[in-house]
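We treat protein structure as text, and this decision shapes the records that our systems exchange. The remainder of this section carries one protein's record, kept here as part of the documentation:
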Amino acid sequence: MPNEFTKKMMDFFETISKNIRLKMGCHSRRGDVDWMRKKWAGHAAMFVLCFSLLTPAGESRAASAGVQVTLPDFMVSLNGHTVDNQQREYPLLVYKDITYFPMTWYDSRLLGLEAKWSPENGLGIAQGQVISSYESYKTNHQNADSYSAEVPASAITINGKPINNSKETYPLLSFRDVTYFPLTWRFAHNEFGWDYRWDDAEGLDIQSHNPQIKTPDLPASAGGNDVALYKGYYYFAETTGNTNQVYRALVQKPSEKELVYSYDFLGSEPPRKMVHFRILDNELWFSYFVGSNLMGTNIYVKVNDDGKGEIKLQKGGYTDFKKTPYGTLIIALGPNDWEGNLSLAAPGQRDQRGKAVGNPNLLYGRHVNLNNSSFIVDGIGTGDSAEVIGDDVYIRASTNNLSDGYYDLNKIYKINLKTNETKKIVNTEVSRFRILGEKLYYVKDADNALYSSALDGTGERKLSENAVSWFDGIDGNVYYTTAIGEDKYRLYQANPDGEDPPVLQERLDGVQLLNGKLVCRLDEKEDYGAMVLDGSGRLVLAVSDPISHLLTSDNAILFTTSGDSTIKVIR
């Protein structure tokens, strides 16, 4: 390459799409065939209009200006990913000694660009809060050394600035139905702020400044179990025969692992290989279950500062626990733990015995339904079973007296750990509750709406217009989801003084509060895989990758992708 190429090198642009669907206003790169057929039918009229704009009157696409382009004869690296142009469906191109970049869905978002098409304004390319993994677009055929490309004549804007493509020295090009963008200094450096480096031996290296998705060099089997990122280490498990080994590895050296803990799950029915990580009070814990469903034991292990695991609690059956100033509050959630299932283990005590807490006639921590005068426990999951504020424990509990026909289910109680005084503070059935700031928030069974009150249960106020499936609070704002279909949800912000505004229009698979951000996993038929919002509900990052599970992390977004168990991280 000539040296003058160095000053011209770089420019990027977002594609109108990798295929005709983008040209008709359909920007999705995911979803099944039937869904895409419906989108095609629904956008037929839009296609005609958009295509007419792309092809001005008196001029056909075949009559568009044709230019000769070649494949680069040098290496190209995009944010550290080496591009294989020889077998790429959308290779980088060279025209007038300038490298051209394909504005595919993934390529553009890899470098932080987003394209939007409208019949009124044509194609608009701008920096956006977007991110994507690298997509190789690898094919089974070899590309030729040169091809013919076209110079599109449609309206174009870059960061809101109009571009007269017919008068550009280095115009945008169209190749294989994808818009190509010239990597000139004007666009790449001035408009998008990218860094680039040209080296006669290493070729062209382009670096954008949007966050990047990385795939840690962890064992392939790690994604089949739980994984955590904590204080600069990845934590994961590997199974050998009937033994689980829990390891950790530095983020900078993920292939160099050190043993944290090991245990044998032989005798578990069925065999239980899963470990579960969580961060509790800025400490990393993991748990596992051994034995049968009825007679097994839950074991909780804390990872100490030296990176070694130490058993802190073991309790027969399923268990949740909370740390208190007086020791560990143990909530037994096994199928045989029907009453008196709340106890307090003194500091340092790790076995299942502890001092009984609260009223022994109450069933604590679970949500209960009645069916033909029989208890039906809806779930035994952890997370909202209890809250500890100073000396007080707030917990959902139920009592019953079948002989008298009296039931008192799913009420919120406050237990003082010093005096053991047990007081009912919310005398209505609730499915879930949280303490956020100085208030108590709960969802009533009667209408599935969200309410708040003072910590003593007074001053109740209805907060949501819709039925609530999940809720949480961040930066003084409360958000909740409402079911809009089978396992699909919409996100709202609670506004007790008026209408609850929808935060996102997209259909969601779920929402999780993680490290001060709302991470929203989108339905597979939406364009993006996830959206990250700040405490005000503003978009921080749109993630192209489809996310199946969010994993435990103290300062990043750690997840597995849908369709496989690949572990990825956004730092």
